Amino acid sequence: MIGNDWDEELTLVESSEGFKRFLSIIKKEYETKTIYPPKDYVFNALKLTPYKDVKVVIVGQDPYHGEGEAHGLSFSVQKGIKIPPSLQNIYTELYNDLGIKPKDNGDLTNWAKQGVLLLNAVLTVEKDKAGSHRKLGWEPFTDYVIKLVNKKDTPVVFILWGNFAKEKKKLITNPKHLVIMSPHPSPLSAYAGFFGSKPFSKTNDFLKKNGLEIIKWEL
Fold first, then answer.
1. What is the chain's percent helix, strand, coil content, to nearest 5?
2. Which runs of E-coded beta strand occur in the chain?
3. Which position among 62, 97, 143, 205 bears the catalytic label?
């Protein structure tokens, strides 16, 4: 399903009748409605960041619901699409934290290729209907993905922005890992503690301390 070592980790899920039934529901959604991201991008986060390479997890809620935006990575939009406000604030904090100037696009693929798992809790959405696929069945799957990362022997940084992401903290029990939490980068909450939280330097300091290659956030 994924095409890398995630398939081995997810064998029990992928082979289960319940998950197959769920995927048939998602397939029907694609056949009868306009659903994002494009079908080939639904598992993009797992495809671009193999299990063995995961060093950082950034948890999002569900995909952007506008045309051409979502491509399977949390907070990321495809090149040529206007940068969403939350991502603009992420770029602002990146500049304030590490002095890295914002990009002219919102494509975070290069973070994913360096081991940053950009995981949305819900992997699909109906056009122009934010949250429309919540409670459809994605959450048990993505929670299981987080639990699998929690089992890794190598230290991982989990970045949880906002109350929704913070709920995932209960799944992260391995003392080897670092959990960074702050308010969401949304314009509604960024000034309540997201700005100044320095998640990027904290992540690299932790990776360096544990003998792991740091993330080149500048893309």
1. 40, 10, 45
2. 35-36, 56-60, 116-120, 125-126, 157-161, 178-182
3. 62
* 91-146 pLDDT tens trace: 999 999 999 998 899 999 999 999 999 999 999 999 999 999 998 999 999 999 99
Residue with tokens 């939490």: 181
Of 45, 72, 43, 42, the residue nearest 57 (C-alpha): 45
Asked if residues 149 and 127 have their Cβ atoms less than 8 Å apart, the reply is: no
> Given phi > 0 = left and psi -120 to 50 = alpha, else beta, which region is 45?
alpha
Distance CA 95, CA 30 (A): 38
Asked if the peptide bond before residue 37 counts as cis, ω within 30 degrees of 0, the response is yes
40 is catalytic: no
